[in-house]
Amino acid sequence: GFTCGALAAMVGTGSDWANDLKFGMCYGRGFWITRQMCCKDSADMLSCSNWKSWAQLLGASHASSEQIVSYVIYIALAVLQAGYAAWLCKVFAPYAVASGIGEIKVILSGFVIKKFLGGWTLLIKCVGLVLAVGSGLSIGKEGPFIHVSCCVANVMSRFFSKFATNEVRKRELLSASAAAGIAVAFGAPVGGVLFSFEEVSLYFPPKTMWRALFCATVAAMSLQRLNPQPSGKMVLFEITYHHKWRLFELIPFAFIGVIGGLVGVFISKMNVRVSRFRKTSQLKKWPVTEVCVTAFITSLVDYVIVYLRGSSMLLLYALFAECKNSNQDTFEELCNHENGREILFFLILSAVIKTLLTIITFGNPCPGGVFVPALVIGGLIGRAVGFSLQLLENEIGDVGIFSPCRSSTSCITPGVYAIVGAAAVLGGVTRMTVCLVVVMFEVTGGYEYVLPVMVGVLLSKWVADAFGKSSIYIELIHLKGYPHLDNKREYAFNERASDVMSCRELFVLSINGNTVESIEGLLATTSYQGFPVVTSPSEMLVVGFISRDSLTQVMRKCRNHPRLTGKTKCFFGSKVDCDDPYVDLSPWLDQSPIQIVETTPLDRVIEMFRALGLRYLLVTHNGQLVGILKKKDILEHIELYRKGLSDRREGN
């Protein structure tokens, strides 16, 4: 937890500095200081004498030349930072790209992705996040913190034998680290635990829940202590509204939920299409070029739109804030009713631009997540709806639906609508429900506004599920071809295990009769990840299962041993009647592989794969091995069932 908090503090500070660097540098206290720290003693950012823009540093005197110099340097630094982040990922850690949440779900379901949670991936992910987020790309660092936290857990587990040698305990550790990732991303430890339980973990026993809560709490407290920002608060967007919401506002809250669901589905579907095009076209050969072009387009557009020019977190703070408490100089006009139509136009325009940029950016070959872009899009939409209602109330007065507002000077608070909109769009993209509601009130501290957020999130999910029940992460998992069974899907099959099993021609090892040469030949002629061990090829009674990695490791040691040759016999048992040197493979044998009978209902088989995180099941008949049922077989059958095909051969 402490390590996750320390890394989050460094990445957060680094990305803020990289974002500020596009506008200028702290001239009086050191160029490595962020603008907020540089100007903490000033009344506001505009009157800060220590901060110098690039136009001032380069001596631009005219207003037109100042704008041109600032614009050009803004674009150049954005492209340079994003391109360098993509190059680092391409050269040193290909698995450090995107958010990594989908792959974490796959790993926690029992699949192994080598090097995805390694030390190099952790290092490049952190450095890449600083550069990619600082460049202004339409991505966030909050989702990738989950990947970072799981990398920390995996690296540290190597120093403790009870985690390094036990996959079940390691999976529990990864579940707790996923909770810590959300805790440091949003300062929401309880929401992090619920996120790990609801979204990423298939195996989450009660003992893991309190351990995950402890880990998330330590991570959030460490971030609060180490974060150099002057506020020092754990609540990311603390709100202090002076007016309570009215009952009639549930109607516009529900409307925002519907819009959020539609926008979330649109982002998911279009982003998957872009990702499919990226995977199947020549674009995949030019990852750095793609990121640089995307950064160029993003910076070219964002600099013109004042709402999108700066940090997304500052924009969210301004969107959530009440007008009388808004102290963000750039966003003061959000409360200016005299230019109401212009503000509405730019809010909607910013939401449209942010949506299009997120579609083409999320999933590209550099680190970055979709949490913050979705929150920004929803916040812009919600603020537009709330601000339009506020303008309507000022225009027609406290009549009609606004009659409950007669007892107060101000009735509509646009910030509440922004919070509901942010939760609705993020829910439409990710299909999160309970954990999203908890995260939102932990992020804002607005416990009185849980009901509006619940209404928006539930309606968003219902609308989004009407167009498909898979979240953007599940869609991308399927696109990448990872074997994953969604625990939120329900299936009703009449088939048995033997009807779906594809592996009937078995390559097995008997407990006797093996040599180093025969095992090496089996490894050379097959690509299977493991082999059943039986009493004999005629009896086929299951003794255990041994993985390919274990066999490869043992055979390599045998070839390096001076007394062992290719004719050396290999046994699965310590009690062997043999005078010559032999190899005992029993220490590497899994003597209790999970087995099912061939008549087991497919529904029960699917639940076993989900709950236990299995990759295969041994299928027996009267105790004899008759085949192996793989997760891939289940997924292929589900896909054929979804397409309306009952016979597997018809799909070939």
Brief summary of the model shown:
With 652 residues, the chain is mostly helical.
Q: What does it look like?
A:
A hairpin with a 7-residue loop joins β5 and β6. This protein has 652 residues and is mostly helical. It starts with a helix and ends in a 10-residue tail after the last helix. α9 packs across α10 and α12 (250-280) packs antiparallel against α17. The protein is 56% helix and 7% strand. The protein has 26 helices and eleven strands. The chain has a three-stranded mixed β-sheet. Strands 4-7-8 form a three-stranded mixed β-sheet. Strands 9-10-11 form a three-stranded mixed β-sheet. Residues 646-652 have low confidence and may be disordered.
Strand and helix layout:
Layout: H1 2-21, E1 24-26, H2 35-38, E2 51-53, H3 54-57, H4 63-92, H5 101-108, H6 119-134, H7 144-157, H8 161-164, H9 167-186, H10 189-200, H11 206-226, H12 250-280, H13 287-302, H14 306-309, H15 312-320, H16 340-361, H17 371-396, H18 414-430, H19 434-444, H20 450-465, H21 472-480, H22 497-500, E3 509-510, E4 514-515, H23 516-525, E5 530-534, E6 542-547, H24 548-560, E7 569-571, E8 582-584, E9 595-597, H25 602-612, E10 616-621, E11 624-630, H26 631-642
Parallel strand pairs: 3-5, 7-8, 9-10
Antiparallel strand pairs: 1-2, 4-7, 5-6, 10-11
Helix pairs in contact: 1-6, 1-7, 1-9, 1-11, 4-6, 4-13, 5-21, 6-7, 7-9, 9-10, 9-11, 10-11, 10-19, 12-16, 12-17, 12-18, 12-20, 12-21, 13-16, 15-17, 16-17, 17-18, 18-20, 19-20, 23-24
